[in-house]
Specification:
GO biological process, one term: protein-containing complex assembly
Largest sheet: 6 strands, parallel
Region (Disordered): 436-462
Strand content: 5-15%
Keywords: Nitrogen fixation
Helix content: 40-55%
Structural class: alpha/beta
Number of helices: 16
Number of domains: 3
Protein name: Nitrogenase iron-molybdenum cofactor biosynthesis protein NifN
CATH topology of the largest domain: Rossmann fold
Function: This protein may play a role in the biosynthesis of the prosthetic group of nitrogenase (FeMo cofactor).
């Protein structure tokens, strides 16, 4: 078990984490015809919007209540009401996800009470649009926690609390973690469907942030999980959470509708992929398809090929807790040493299983300050780690959010058999590309030997 060390710096240097409201907005972006609404100033929303646009390279529907100085002092209920009505009239969303920010949370407003009053007063105007509130102050937690809170809020707001009803045979609710990419979700869906099961992924950014260009302007999310599908999750035969931070969501579904669930901490190792596939085989009553057996064999071969490049290597990783755990477990299983592990928040129970001597809760500056980072062979973090990579002279493998200085980040796979194989190849190729190139001169054992010393007093040879 690693030692969890929290830093107490007055300021964050080269921040690692993104805020809770951004994580919550990312979750709402995976719901069809939805509009995330950040309850705060325009600056808070602008920063989150820029981050998403740079990462996904797509149009991102994201709005704000535009709190000003007067509203900050007197209260923002009027701004919230005006924003909800404007969004309803202009964009006609099926769902509005209200994410609070530090500006309004610090004042300590009664958001739930304000929202209930607005619903009663404006019931006719808001008819047909669900409004979901999630508390996500910037000063607390990180992207992972905000994402998990938003998914839980969706379940608590939309799924009716009722006794367990007859389950639809083969219907499986999948709750992916924030770190699963568009390509990861496509792979998860294909794997579940290969067993004859019907997956309902909540939220599903593979349908809304996958680069599909509609033939007309659509102001809300285009694709994703329909609100009706979320409302009907109580009929699922089983629920699967991928990551500890979405455990509260499946627990809420179990409490409200009696749906049994399983939590898998990661899908980024061979053993974890095996457990997921075995669970699907048990739920479906079918044998593992030949395609998956062949994919597993290819991953085994990739691990054999790759371990020559990882054995004895020192790796420094900075990521959100669940993502950190999955990556660290993979690299450690290939023979690498996790020399430095930095994360964003120390509350996740997953951190206790990270295969490292210490996990530091801090920023990317800690990645450089910790003594072992300078001597590492590979840095693994998002695009903001490029400065540390340059200063330390250590190659960078870009993972997570945001990746803005490379194309295709949302389409890279890192889960299940095919995705883990891709991860191994990507990391091994980076290591190979930065190995010193040996030449015949560099391998000459006599290259650095000086000429034999001849004393001036020695007699000249005859």
């Amino acid at each position: 078990m690693p030692v969890i060390t929290a830093t107490h710096k007055a300021a964050s240097v080269n921040p690692l984490k993104s805020s809770q409201p951004l994580g919550a907005a990312l979750a709402f972006l995976g719901v069809a015809e939805a509009m995330p609404l950040l309850h705060g100033s325009q600056g808070c929303t602008s920063f989150a919007l820029v981050q998403c646009v740079r990462h996904f390279k797509e149009t991102i529907p994201l709005q704000t209540t535009a709190m000003d100085e007067v509203a900050t002092i007197l209260g923002g209920a009027d701004h919230l009401e005006e924003a909800l009505l404007n969004l309803k009239n202009r964009t006609r969303p099926k769902l509005i996800g209200v994410c609070t920010t530090a500006l309004v949370e610090t004042r300590g407003e009664d958001f739930a009470g304000d929202l209930a009053l607005i619903r009663r007063k404006r019931a006719a105007e808001l008819a047909g649009t669900d409004v979901v509130l999630v508390h996500t102050p910037d000063f607390d937690g990180a992207l992972e926690e905000g994402f998990g809170k938003a998914v839980t809020a969706l379940i608590e707001a939309l799924v009716p609390a009722a006794p367990r009803r007859a389950a639809e045979t083969g219907k499986v609710a999948i709750f992916p973690g924030w770190h699963l990419t568009v390509a990861d979700l496509d792979l998860v869906r294909d794997t579940v469907e290969s067993f004859g099961l019907d997956p309902v992924i909540v939220p599903d950014i593979s349908g809304s942030l996958d680069g599909t260009v509609p033939g007309r302007w659509i102001p809300t999310t285009y694709g994703g999980t329909p609100v009706e599908a979320i409302r009907d999750l109580g009929s699922a035969a089983h629920a699967i959470a991928i990551g500890e931070h979405v455990r509260p969501a499946v627990e809420a579904l179990a409490a409200r509708a009696g749906v049994p669930f399983t939590v898998v901490e990661t899908l980024s190792t061979l053993a974890a992929a095996d457990r997921f596939v075995a669970l699907l085989a048990r739920l479906s009553g079918r044998p593992v398809p030949a395609r998956l057996r062949r994919a597993r064999s290819r991953l085994q071969d990739a691990m054999l090929d790759g371990h020559f490049h990882f054995a004895g290597k020192r790796v420094a990783i900075a990521a959100e807790p669940d993502h950190l755990y999955g990556l660290a477990t993979l690299f450690a299983g290939l023979g690498a040493e996790i020399a430095v592990a930095v994360t964003t928040t120390g509350r996740s129970p997953t951190l206790a299983a990270v295969p490292a001597a210490e996990v530091v809760v801090g920023d990317l500056d800690e990645l450089e300050l910790r003594g072992g980072a300078a001597g590492c062979d590979l840095l693994v973090t998002h695009s903001h780690g490029r400065q540390a990579s340059e200063r330390l002279g250590v190659p960078l493998m870009r993972v997570g959010f945001p990746i803005f200085d490379r194309l295709g980040g949302p389409y890279r796979r890192g889960v299940l058999y095919d995705g883990v194989r891709d991860l191994i190849f990507d990391a091994a190729n980076i290591l190979q590309a930065h190995q010193p190139v040996h030449t015949p001169d560099s391998l000459d054992p006599f290259r650095d030997r000086g000429e034999p010393h001849v004393s001036r007093s020695s007699p000249a040879p005859h």
